[in-house]
Queue: 2 jobs
Job 1
Amino acid sequence: MKVLIIGFGFIGRDLARVFEEKLALIKQIDKDFRVIGVSNSRGYVYDKGGLDLWKLLKVGELSEYRKGYRSGGSSAELIEKSAADLVVEATPTNIKDGEPGLSFMRIALSRSIHVVTPNKGPLVVAFKELTALAEKNECELLYEGTVAGAVPLFSLVRECLRGDRLLRISGILNGTTNYILSKMYFEETSFELALKEAQERGITERDSSYDVDGIDAACKVVILANAIMKREARLEDVERTGIRGVTQEAVSLAKKSNYAIKLIGTIERELEVAPKLVPTNHPLCVHGTLNAVHLETDLAKEVTLVGYGAGKETVSAILNDVLTVLRKRRKA
Amino acid sequence: MKFDLTLALADRPGQLVRALEPIAKNGGNIVSIIHEREKPAEGYVPVSLVVDFPSKQNLRRTVNDLRSLGVSIIKSEEIVETTRVTLILIGKMDLKKLVETRIEDARIVGFEVSTPTSNEACVKLELEAPTESVNKALEELKRLSKEENALLISSI
């Protein structure tokens, strides 16, 4: 299988490294697996025989790779001309119009090229369109990394809860706000101080509003609602309250009664993101940058998944999605 | 519908069987029965029953039948299942107004105010409401807190 990595930032680079490290495992499923192209906003490298990923990981800029570099060459052009089988779309998230990732996914799917992505933007903006396009062109669109990072949520529902009807999903879907609220809970710091510390540790988005006002969590609620609960939700359907108004006094008052305040995304009849009191003995009560998702179904009743929701762990979800496509294609 | 039915039965053999007959006749299903023999008073023993009747009408008929048999009724009332919810409110709000506001059928059973370190008050409330109307009560409180520009944090 010939693979493209679109977007060569933090995630794209990490994926290239993991592809090299896990090559033996990947080749067990597909001995012809190779990455034939990598692009960023400035250009791309393309080699139909397969790129040398170790060499690529050593260069600061794609242009330094030299062989097969096309300065100013667009990702769209690379997808169109490369005859790839699978595109990993890892450009930065844009929740306003989903671009540029949305266009790249449309181009790939309409050519029956499988897409694996951790990019929330296109799925928030055009979930139905993209899944319909994948279905029509008989290719896969997998997006495990978009919600709760490395936590195998969509795979679990797809593979292990096939017969269950999902009644309610709730969860801590943003690690940054969980870090801030955990600091306030354990160290009795103010919201402002905890936010500053999160920013210094580099775990907030450039615009911290994206985390603390619940926008990121709301995006994940939309994806979960559409993908798992089969809704047709949009971002504006989510009733959203962030954690700016949560004071240290409130956190302490909750703690005295054996509750922790957590930013919880809920998908039931209504879609909501809001700070909630979580009993300290509830499985959703996890701390630090951890994410947790609680599924309520008609048969399994309650299932809770806990894990890391962002950063380098996300590569686990992307790799598993890629392996899922390889395995399905081999079976076919 | 579940009812708490407490009878005063004469402390003589056969009285309980006699009292149960009208309950069965009127469609009552006995959920529990406590024969409080340790509390006899002037030859009478209290018997507490929880009975599931199809309607209030069935209970009324049973009570009338029991009275005509000469059985004294100490208590006959519907058991309303209640749920307790904990909430926190943060904001520059009028606490007195909040406490005095009647929220659906809910009662405030717990109230704690934190020592304020800012001009925003922080209150923890424990509400008790009939289970079937607890969501309505929460909606009402949500509306009130919006009016007061306060942040309502409810439990999951």
Note: Chain B has two domains: 2-78, 82-154.
Job 2
Amino acid sequence: MTSSGNDDSAAADSRAAATSHHGVVAVDPPLRGGPASDVVGLGRARAFAFVAPAMLLIGVFLLFPALWTLYIGATDYERTGPKHVSPSFVGIDNYTDVLADPSFYNSLWLSLLFVGCSAVIGQNGLGFALAWSLRNVAGWLRRTVETLVLFAWILPGSVVAFLWIAMLDRDGGTANTLLDTPGLAWFVDYPMASLIIFNIWRGTAFSLMLYGAALSSVPPSQLETARLAGASNLQTLRDVVFPHIRGHALTNTLLITLWTFNDFTPFLLTAGGPGDDSEIVSVYVYNTAIRDGRLGYSGAISLLILVANVVLALFYLRMLRKRSVS
Amino acid sequence: MTVSDDDDARRAAWRMAARIGFYALTCLIAVFFALPLLWLVTAPFDASPTYAVDVPDPTLQNFAEINANPYAWGSMLNSILLSLGTALFVVVGAALAAYALSRVRMPGRDALLYVLLLLSSVVTGTAAMVPLFLLVSEIGDTVHPALGIDSSFAVMLVMAGGLLPAGIFMLKDFVDTVPRSYEESARVFGASPLRILKDIVAPLIAPGLATIAVWTVVNVWGNFLVPFILLRDPEKQPAAVLMRTLYTESGQPNLALLSTFSLLYSLPVIAMYLYVSRKYGFRFHGGIKS
């Protein structure tokens, strides 16, 4: 795989070297095409050679897997055994099976709950609320809050998962001590609620930073006018602030939705349990594919998820475009 | 007169109460964010740590225990190797591509970049794990085992493929701001494009290169799923995966070892955050467009 890749780029390189002489000669009528034309004399062939290594990696490890899912999902491929050696083509059987499988709907529902409550409402809301209320607060309070929120975001997933296992522990966990609920096993009794609170804690930093940047783009004069006109806080937010940051809000919601949907950290906290009470889609795919080894079946699920993600992204992009047209 | 005085007083009192309520609420939120972090600070220094946050009975004994674990330092080394290797691929690949895309007009360039960016945020985690696992097993079986399952090199390539679109996207902004006149004069003296990129453009976009290098390292350092799926050999697993093994393998997790390891494993990321925030300010500037 890589050796053929090297050949490719080597060939492209030699072609590029051949054209570079042309490039040097051809530059003499200068700057005819405006600033975007090739003033550096890179030449189109060499430019392709420059882009090739990155595109090769993206093509093999991003584009190809996405397309390959289409094929895997149409076979009965398994991780081991005879169906690993010679998988057969089963057409849309996997898809009809998935769509008739109650555990698929269970995981889909849990994922929607997880994304809706923790990202769309939780991170979005808390991130905006913090950005809005801290915008005029200077000094240590703002710095402290921002640093704490950011720490939750930058620490490695394995570490934060373990910190939460410690905090929500049945016997000595901080949560039970503070809330005076000794012996409450959070991850067993309220697995989804725990995951949602965890994810709000984990991901609010991005929304906070994005809304912080967005709010600084609202012209202060308009805020001042609203204040002089006696508008309440809520009116100011609705009529002055929100029209300015609508694009940011959409971008933010799209990104955190996709990230949360694909996030695998819940696996480290509950591994989908107890039973399948917190088996969100990412854990469900892992369990069917790697644990149970049903690669073809989980390929079909992956493709459905991929399509759902793309549809979601296109929907947001459409809303964005509509905004910039109107 | 008295009525309006009363009103004023009431309004002032109301404002005062709102102010106090606001600070109380903000402090409560700060506590919510600080609570889980406390354990990371106390437990590693406690002689007999439990899940509870306690004033530690101070000791550095736990750090000696890390030395005794056969996998601890090895996994940290693996994490460093994976992060730096991936960062090298991403920085070099993104610099070459961003330079070419910035300087040569190619048809459909912007659309291509957007589609790749979208794809890279869609084809991650959940959706990509099955095909990636299969692809890497297949490459290992048919091309060379050094690129298959249990190959750190394969993990680097997979992660670089996922991070490159955003890397190119970020770096292109930096390249776009470099004035072309430098490159033109270098060219008059006969410098090759590769040399111009290396000696003239790269130093000028050093902050951009540093940004995506740090960003890649932080991403790979914390990534659990890709090495978890692609690396089976405990000798090759990075710290992210070892954390889970330490927790799940023995019946009673060794909290002294786990908490100390967590702290050591987190320190590089915290150091990088402090460095970046001191040097550039850890905020979004104009970069994110609506």
Note: The first helix of chain B runs from residue 2 to 42.
